[in-house]
Amino acid sequence: MSNKIRWGVLGVAAIATKKVIPAMQKCARAEVAGIASRDLGKAEKAAADLGIRKAYGSYEAMLADPGIDAIYNPLPNHLHVPWSIKAAEAGKHVLCEKPVAMSSAECRDLIAARDRTGVKIGEAFMVRLHPQWLRTRAVVHSGRIGELRSILGFFSYYNTNPQNIRNVSEYGGGGVMDVGCYPIHISRWIFEEEPVKVMAAVELDPVMKTDRLVSAVLEFPSGQSIFTCSTQLAPYQRMQFFGTKGRVEVEIPFNAPPDRPVRIFIEDASGIETEEFPACDQYTLQGDAFSRAVQENTPVPVTLEDALGNMEAIEKALRG
């Protein structure tokens, strides 16, 4: 496709260089045209390694380039809103990593910037584009498992490095912001409702003061969602959806591998059925979907209003 959306990447974060950029280089509607770092040498190395044409020694230089249409923001959480606003004010569309803000108030500031500038801004919940999730949602909404009443989720990994940004509280570290945001987002998306009440047991790391183990209950008008997330447990992830007549289980719900098939399990009165989905890269799907929204002036996959709902639930969970 000609006239691809030209993307610039803020920073050389691992998620960008190892996952998102290689995936977006396979997009039909997007091309990664530039990468910026506050260290020009780092930007030049990343550009050389990944075959990106332009490298910038500052974020400001990339935002000033008329050859960039849209910005991917994978910076640490506390820099999401400040730099997304600067990008919007420079006339760039913005796909910002999750969680999009440090607070619901900050998210509202970003919404105001979007409305003021007229650009597209969205939150990067790439899972929403994966075929396994489109199918799971369709099965639940079809009535095959009856009335959805309960959602159960788990997402954990082990990282005790105090230098890692995920373990720095002032940078927006901690389990709920990093991984708990996923089961919250998916639960809201599947129920198509906002939680009316959120309760949680929160355990803080005694040294780093970040939440390292959280178990939460979200009460929705139609049912409940329960999840546990942790930054200091064995790596594991799973989501299940229980209805009055059956259930759906997603085996690898969040970090679906791009190089092998994934599965969901559907259980109803007729037994358990396994559905397998061919390998695909959810970051490629995300890049194309957001670029299409820019090209066709349609809504982005995950809006800032959706992000605000997620942020409000995150805040309630962290209050315990």
Mean pLDDT: 97
- The CATH class of the largest domain is Alpha Beta
- In total, how many beta strands? 14
Shape: globular
Q: Tell me about the biggest sheet? A: 8 strands, mixed
Kindly name the structural category. Answer: alpha/beta
What is the CATH architecture assignment of the largest domain? 2-Layer Sandwich
Number of helices: 9
Approximately how much beta-strand content do the residues carry? 25-35%
Order of helices and strands: EHEHEHEHEHEHEHEEEEEEEHH
CATH superfamily annotation of the largest domain: Dihydrodipicolinate Reductase, domain 2
Our measurement of the CA-to-CA distance between the termini, rounded to an integer number of angstroms, reads: 49 Å
CATH-derived topology of the largest domain? Dihydrodipicolinate Reductase, domain 2
Record keyword descriptors for this entry.
Dihydrodipicolinate Reductase, domain 2, 2 domains, alpha/beta, 320 residues, Rossmann fold, 8-stranded mixed β-sheet, 9 helices
Could you walk me through the main structural features you see in this protein, from its secondary elements to its overall organization?
- This protein folds into 2 domains: 5-125 and 285-301, Rossmann fold, CATH 3.40.50.720; 131-279, Dihydrodipicolinate Reductase, domain 2.
- Helices cover 34% and strands 29% of the residues.
- It is built from 9 helices and 14 strands.
- It has helices at residues 14-24, 40-50, 59-63, 80-89, 104-117, 131-142, 175-191, 282-296, 304-318, and strands spanning 5-10, 30-36, 54-56, 70-73, 93-96, 121-123, 148-158, 197-204, 211-220, 223-230, 232-243, 247-250, 262-268, 271-277.
- The strands form 2 sheets. Strands 8-9-10-7-11-12-13-14 form an 8-stranded mixed sheet. The chain has a 6-stranded parallel sheet with strand order 3-2-1-4-5-6, with helices on both faces.
- Helix 1 (14-24) packs across helix 8.
- The N and C termini lie far apart (49 Å).
